[in-house]
Specification:
Rossmann fold, eight-stranded mixed β-sheet, 11 helices, 10 strands, 34% helix
Length: 288
């Protein structure tokens, strides 16, 4: 059976890349044992290289500079009341509540807002929180900003920024909740190094979260979920977080959990396809 999936980068429907054609299967079967062994070694090397983390990536360096040539960058200036772009997103470290929201309230951050359904609804249902959503896609950010401009509340800010740089956007223990839902799984092994969920990200999340602060994660992708689980199970991660939830079928194993109380646009499509939703809840062990 051929299944459809959503391409998160282009927002188009594609044939599920996980369903191999007969032609590809035949090519794999035609390989000699030596070729298969060599391919397995190459795959293992790529996997290990990716899992060593991205500490040397420029995105994780303090002096990183955003570069772009996109008309939607200037269009986002139409919403300067609540939108901050690029370096401006890193100009309020430690003073988001005081200088930006002008009130003390729990600070919640969503990395990768996508269409913004969760951000929009969460802000409406929780007017007593200060909410920051961030995404890097230009057109998607602009379309969401247009929608947010009609929101009944103003308890949010929107950042056109990179999730890899949260430690440069927020001070130590400034964020109460981090949300990371249905990120691009980068399914090809050569692209695994682009996956955000790695130890550098977990260390940054721990750094910006308050004592007892929580990181919530959801994904539909089996491969990315297994990747995440390996990092979640890592002893280094257990030094930083208590693992409150680790499931490969959220609605079967924890239907009463907070993460099962809402569905994003992507999630509704996945559930219609009978795709199990994988979820994690990590609570900071940081002491007060």
């Amino acid at each position: 059976m051929i299944r459809l999936k959503i391409c998160r980068r282009s927002n188009e429907l594609l044939i599920d890349s996980r369903v191999m054609s007969d032609e590809i299967k035949n090519e794999e079967m035609a390989k000699s044992p030596e070729e298969l062994e060599l391919q397995a070694l190459k795959d293992k090397e790529r996997e290990e290289k990716a899992k060593r983390g991205m500490e040397n990536d420029r995105l994780y360096q303090k002096d990183f500079q955003y570069k772009h040539k996109n008309p939607y960058h200037e269009k986002l200036a139409e919403f300067e009341e609540f939108v901050l772009r690029d370096e401006a997103a890193e100009s309020n470290v430690g003073k988001w509540n005081e200088a930006v929201f002008n009130r003390e309230a729990p600070l919640c951050v969503e990395i990768g807002t996508g269409y913004g359904h969760f951000m929009h609804d969460y802000c409406e249902k929780n007017p007593d929180v200060n909410f920051i959503g961030l995404d890097f896609r230009f057109k998607r950010s602009y379309n969401l900003a247009r929608r947010l401009a009609k929101h009944p509340y103003r308890n949010f800010k929107y950042l056109r920024a990179r999730g890899e740089r949260i430690e440069f956007m927020f001070a130590d223990s400034e964020v109460d909740k981090l949300f990371y839902f249905f990120p691009d799984p980068w399914p090809k092994k050569k692209h695994h190094k682009k996956r955000l969920f790695q130890m550098p990200f977990l260390r940054a999340a721990y750094q910006v979260l308050t004592p007892g602060g929580t990181l919530f994660v959801k994904t539909d992708h089996d491969g990315y979920a297994e990747w995440m689980a390996e990092f979640v199970d890592n002893p280094d991660t257990h030094k930083l977080f208590d693992i409150r939830l680790r499931t490969f079928d959220l609605y079967e194993d924890a239907p009463e959990h907070f993460l099962a109380s809402f569905q994003t646009k992507f999630e509704k499509i996945f559930l219609e396809q009978k795709t199990p939703i994988k979820a994690f809840e990590l609570v900071s062990k940081k002491e007060k």
